[in-house]
Design brief:
The structure holds 2 protein chains of 2 kinds. In chain A, 34% of the residues lie in helices and 25% in strands. By secondary structure, chain A is of the alpha/beta class. The two termini of chain A are 34 Å apart. Chain B has 2 domains: 161 residues, P-loop containing nucleotide triphosphate hydrolases (Rossmann fold); 59 residues, no CATH class. In chain B, strand 1 and strand 2 form a beta hairpin. In chain B, helix 4 packs across helix 5, helix 4 packs parallel to helix 6 and helix 5 packs across helix 6. The chains are: A alpha/beta, B alpha/beta. Bound molecules: adenosine-5'-triphosphate (2 copies) and magnesium ion (2 copies).
């Protein structure tokens, strides 16, 4: 059985031109694997993640079916849904410092996240938080645990969010640009940590990222989204052989270490309907 | 190169938060019209250096000169027009209850600049945003769309210096390419100076002349961007960063 199965998912918002589907009939299955979602800004990647967790607020509307471990998530009450969120399905938000609670230290927030998963004595709890911060390569976990969201650097905020989302050992992790603010060396460690959970705990991963080389290296499968739809899906290792012109356009736009181009190729956006 | 001639000049700058020093002994000069990168470890103090330069870090010592004027310990309105910063996360820096139009027109109003309508339209077009975004609020846009609003806002006042903190890290590669091309073009057309923070070395290769590599609150090396072609870094940290980024 699949861990997650998404069928004909649509997310729409009212606009002056009428209701627009920003996610438009998306279907995919996910096992205990790493699925990458790539695609242009505004193509509906984050909305897909949020819709799975039922985090779309009115006037946004969601249709379709999302099945998680055989349970139809859209039929659950909000109270039942809350027992899934954070505990069994967690999402690393694209804007970590903004998504963190501004009036609670980051250490306390990670503790709270752990508490939904297991009850531990205070001392053991602190030790687990410390361990988790170290695992995401925070060098001075005791200092950082005392800080508030606005006092951590961009990359630290991202790692705090990752620590918070991994500590309850979810079955499904939706990671929305989880490493965009990290330098390559820290990024590698954080991805390995996520990978351990996929391998050892059978976690499923949806990795939303605009870093094409990273997704190609790290994931098993890739969905390429444009204007709310999947335009191409392939094995990650085959991304460089992508056939869709949109995917090729994305690949060509990546700057290179030995960059000699005066100008980077851009896509003709008039070819692609946007929202 | 004198401190009065440079666009940005730092000499032995330390910055602290609540008495705790986080960056130490920073010294570098950015010439007018130069594009200079700050790269390095997460948490090493890159954003802090940018904040100190534009007066947003109250506790610093040493010497800072920005466009020939001594640096200050709080934001300075007359310099704001000539030096704009794009913050690392636009979510926090865009007011949640202001439309894109308000965000972009406001700096013009504050500085008494006319022709608002055309300027707003132009700025949106420059960053590749359709005009239908003009009356949206931040929460009605995707991450990359918000980031582009933040870049457009910084461009509104036609500054001479731009401090760019990971300006494209929230952008997908195609929009990133548009923004990088735009920054390159503006620099060629208007002689803009950039101080750009990024963890993406290929971006440095495309857009910058030189870079300072930071680790643990210090600048460990200042190198020419050509080091990205031939790997001629000298400090072990820069060499490791280059290797980990897929450099030879
Ligand atoms: N409240 C809203 N009203 C109208 N449109 C909205 C609203 N919220 C989001 N959108 C639109 O939905 C589209 C999809 O947004 P989403 O955040 O999923 O994009 P994304 O693929 O994650 O992009 P990015 O890479 O920039 O983060 C965007 O074009 C956005 O402008
Ligand atoms: N307002 C603040 N109060 C206390 N400490 C702070 C504050 N802002 C930043 N710091 C600390 O200063 C150090 C440097 O942070 P800074 O944001 O400059 O790093 P950075 O190099 O930009 O990192 P990143 O690449 O992750 O964004 C970090 O240890 C951070 O916790
Ligand atoms: Mg997004
Ligand atoms: Mg920073």
């Amino acid at each position: 059985m699949n861990l997650l199965s998404v069928e004909n998912l649509c997310v729409s918002f009212p606009t002056p031109q009428g209701r627009v589907n920003v996610v438009d009939g998306l279907s995919f299955d996910l096992g205990q694997e790493r699925l990458g979602i790539v695609g242009e800004s505004g193509s509906g990647k984050s909305m897909t993640g949020r819709a799975i967790l039922r985090l779309i607020r009115p006037p946004g509307q969601v249709e379709g079916r999302v099945n998680f471990e055989g349970v139809d998530l859209f039929s659950l009450s909000e109270r039942q849904m809350r027992t899934y969120r954070g505990a069994r399905i967690s999402m690393i938000m694209q804007d970590p410092r903004y998504s963190l609670n501004p009036v609670m230290t980051v250490g306390t927030q990670i503790e709270e996240a752990l508490r939904v998963h297991e009850r531990l004595p205070k001392r053991a709890m602190k030790a687990r938080v410390r361990e988790m911060l170290e695992a995401v390569r925070i060098n001075d976990p005791d200092r950082v645990a005392q800080l508030y969201a606005h006092e951590v650097s961009g990359g630290m905020g991202q790692r705090v969010m990752i620590a918070m989302m991994l500590i309850p050992r979810p079955k499904l992790l939706i990671a929305d640009e989880p490493t965009s603010a990290l330098d390559v060396s820290v990024q590698g460690d954080v991805l390995r940590l996520i990978d351990d959970l996929v391998r050892d705990h059978g976690m499923g991963l949806i990795l939303i990222s605009h870093d094409l080389p990273l997704v190609a290296r790290y994931c098993d499968r890739i969905l390429v989204m444009n204007a709310g739809r999947v335009v191409e899906s392939c094995d990650a290792s085959e991304l460089h052989n992508a056939t869709h012109p949109y995917t090729k356009g994305l690949l060509a736009a990546v700057p290179q270490m030995h960059e000699t181009r005066e100008e980077l190729p851009v896509m003709d956006r008039t070819l692609w309907a946007g929202t | 190169m004198g401190r009065y001639m440079s666009a940005i000049s730092l000499n032995n700058v330390d910055v602290a938060y609540d008495g705790v020093r986080v960056v130490e002994g920073i010294t570098f000069n950015v010439a007018r019209g130069e594009s200079f990168a700050l790269v390095g470890e997460s948490g090493s103090g890159k954003s802090t250096v940018l904040k100190a330069i534009c007066g947003l870090a109250p506790e610093w010592t040493g010497e800072i000169f920005l466009l020939g004027e001594p640096g200050s310990h709080r934001p300075n309105l007359s310099l704001a027009r000539r030096c704009q910063m794009v913050f690392q996360d636009p979510y926090g820096s865009l007011h949640p209850r202001k439309t894109v139009d308000a965000v972009l027109s406001e700096p013009l109003a504050i500085h008494g600049i006319g022709g608002q309508d055309e300027r707003v339209e132009q700025a949106l077009a420059d960053v590749g945003l359709d005009r239908r975004f003009r009356f949206r609020y931040p929460h009605q846009m995707s991450g990359g769309q918000r980031q582009r609003v933040a870049i457009a806002r910084a461009l509104m006042l036609e500054p001479e210096v731009m401090l760019l903190d990971e300006p494209t890290s929230a952008l997908d590669v195609s929009v990133q390419a548009e923004i990088l091309n735009l920054l390159k073009r503006l620099r060629a057309e208007r002689g803009l100076t950039y101080l750009l923070v990024t963890h993406n070395l290929p971006i440095v290769s495309f857009l910058c002349d030189r870079m300072a590599v930071m680790s643990k609150g210090r600048v460990v090396e200042i190198a020419s961007s050509t080091a990205l072609h031939d790997g001629s870094f000298t400090h072990p940290y820069s060499q490791a960063l280059y290797a980990a980024s897929g450099g030879a």
